[in-house]
Amino acid sequence: MLTACTELLRELQSKINILSRDPGAGLARIEKILGFINQVFLSMKSLMESYVFQNQYEEITFFKEITPELYAHWVFYSTIYNVQSHAYPASSKHRLKYFEHELKKIDDFFFHHIEFYKYYRAGRNHRDVEFFTRQEASREFNTDLLAPVMDQQFCTPYSLKLAMVIANEKLKSWLSSAISAEVKPEIISTYNSEPPLPVLQWTGTKTGLCEMIYAWYASGVFNNGNATIESITRHCEKFFSIELSAQTVTFQEILRRKKGPTTFIDWLKSKYIFYIESIESAAIQRNINKK
Fold first, then answer.
1. Of 111, 117, 120, 128, which has the highest C-beta tally within 10 A?
2. Are residues 110 and 245 in contact, defined by beta-carbon separation less than 8 angstroms?
3. Backbone φ, ψ for residue 223 (5° rounding)
4. pTM listed for this prediction
5. Which residue intervals of the chain are DSSP H helices?
6. Using H for helix, E for strand and C for coil, what is the string for 19-49?
7. ∠ Cα 75 101 35 (to 5°)
8. CA 157: distance to chain centroid?
């Protein structure tokens, strides 16, 4: 059964890849993809109707690797369909605001499911029986909004949660690209005789830069406090030639540090004070030498 389901997913991905070669098709292309995904849902549910898993490993594999991938496809493409339907009739300014709002919703999701996200991303498996078998999942009191209406023969609550993680990672990338396409870089006039400015590359730690990004966001120093964490992050990536991923996870780790959440900022402050003191000491020394 696992082989048959894996083949259905492989065929689905092949169809998606073919349709993705024509990005100009827009919403019509996504409608076709959603139609293919729905067909796979029906086929898999038909396979599952009378099937009994041979062992626990087979059950975990199905609910951890197969159904989350299928649900993630549905969540990803249905969300893009809704976003494009709402955003593209609007102006560029409103599209940008809408995209950043959607990114904020994704950040909120990862914030509220940070422990499960770390479990998944770290490749752990010690709670797989609890998360990805129906018998164990049915014993847990579940407050997920989708729990009452989900097909309990076809997924567990954590299968859906994993699907949301996978889909949101892809949606975050898609929305970031959409924001980059909307942002028009400011043109700065310079004399042709002036040499180009050298590239500023961030050579500190990514965690340190994350501290700064959240500090800038909290202080509201960009766009009168209207700049989002995501937009500040994207600008830092472009300006400092660095790739920043999983900022929400990094920030959660910063909050849990025993040394406190401002290690880098405190270090900057100490360096700045030392620099000021060295200037003042040099000025005092020059005055003494003059005398």
1. 117
2. no
3. 55, 40
4. 0.63
5. 2-20, 27-48, 56-61, 67-87, 92-112, 114-121, 128-132, 134-139, 157-182, 206-219, 229-240, 247-255, 263-290
6. HHCCHHHCHHHHHHHHHHHHHHHHHHHHHHC
7. 20
8. 21
Per the structure block, which two tokens stand in for 277? 């003191």
One digit per residue, pLDDT tens: the chain, 291 residues? Answer: 888 999 999 999 888 888 877 655 678 889 999 999 999 999 999 988 888 889 999 999 999 999 999 999 999 999 999 998 888 777 778 888 888 889 889 989 998 999 998 898 888 899 999 999 987 554 554 545 454 445 677 888 899 999 999 999 889 888 888 887 776 544 333 333 345 556 678 888 989 999 999 999 899 898 888 888 888 888 888 788 787 877 777 888 898 888 889 999 999 999 999 989 888 888 787 777 776
Q: Which two tokens stand for residue 177?
A: 């690209």
Cα distances (Å, whole numbers) of residue 189 to 81, 146, 198, 223:
40, 54, 17, 22
Backbone torsion region of residue 223, taken as left when φ is above 0, otherwise alpha when ψ lies between -120 and 50, otherwise beta: left
Sign of CA dihedral 26, 82, 119, 145: negative
